[in-house]
Amino acid sequence: MSPINASPFQHVVIAAHPQVREALAEGQEVAAFLQNHGVDAYAGLLYDEELHRRVREGEADLLIALGGDGTMLRAGHLCAPHGVPILGINMGHFGFLIEVERAEWRHTLRQLLLGEAWIEERMMLEAQLVRGEEMVQRWDVVNEVVVSRGQFVRPVKVTAYVDDLLLARYVADGLIAATPTGSTAYALAAGGPILPPELRNILLMPVAPHLSVDRAVVLSEGSTVTLAVKVDHQAVVSVDGHDPVALEDGDRVHVRANRFPLKFVRFRGRGYFYRNLTSYMNWNPTVEKESQRRQW
Known about the structure:
Blueprint: E1 11-16, H1 23-36, E2 40-45, H2 49-56, E3 62-67, H3 69-79, E4 86-90, E5 100-101, H4 105-113, E6 118-122, E7 125-131, E8 134-141, E9 144-149, E10 156-162, E11 165-172, E12 174-178, H5 186-189, E13 201-207, E14 217-220, E15 224-230, E16 235-239, E17 245-247, E18 252-257, E19 262-266, H6 272-282, H7 285-295
Parallel strand pairs: 1-2, 1-3, 3-4, 4-5
Antiparallel strand pairs: 6-19, 7-8, 7-18, 9-12, 9-16, 10-11, 10-15, 12-13, 13-14, 15-18, 16-17
């Protein structure tokens, strides 16, 4: 007998990573499982236009993402502006943001149908590239904004202002402005601190600084950060690993807390982040996979 459906999620879209061969087939199985329990479910690739339309037009109250952390980032860019929560099923290697392992999703979805879940909200950032008096581009940011050198191995000069007051001048390969979620991504690789996801702070972290500030700075969520670029060679800005955008001398990147949060569906206790942290820090599946390949 099917369980009583007490879930608040009655219209679900399932987004599969387009480059993971098994993801779409697995997503269709997820959709069939939900449909058998009375839930309207649609499965497609992450960039499927019908899937995007359902989210944009309010026809989805949950998105299930099949992939890795990169899939969760892309899903966040789509869902957060529309208030749609995300549940991740791991089809990748690393899963700081993922809630469910591939072999466990049937059990977890039964919990979902019984209403045994909670919503975690995480701060996002808004970034704007300003050239002169014109806003060139705007982004919603899950992990980080990175101002950095381009293909030439020469540092960039970035002056950071907080609420229009000078904070520091950096000469470095780059400067990262990250959310607490992003503190476990590029900022961590650059030597930055790990911030718990419930915090609402902006983390500034230089990358390979040269004779300049080499410490991370943690700012309050109400701050507006301006990164002013001075270069006579190539420099770029990149958001959440998207294709970089070329910068010109005098460009400014404004970063502040976004007006809407990123929402994740969770089943584990609210202290899950700390329980998982040690295991993630001591076990890197990408490195382990390479080691196994060499042994083979």
